[in-house]
Amino acid sequence: MESFFTLYLKLFFMMTPFFVLSLFLTMSKHLTWVEKKSVIFKMAIAVTVGSLAFLLFGKYIFTLFGITLDAFKIGAGTVLFLSALDMIRSDSEIPTTDSKKGTRDFAIVPLAIPSAVGPGMIGILMVIGAETSAPINILWVVLSLLAAVISLVAVLLLSNKIQDLLGRQGLEILPKITGLFVSAIGAQIVFSGIQGFLL
Question: pTM, whole model, 2 decimals?
Answer without folding.
Answer: 0.79
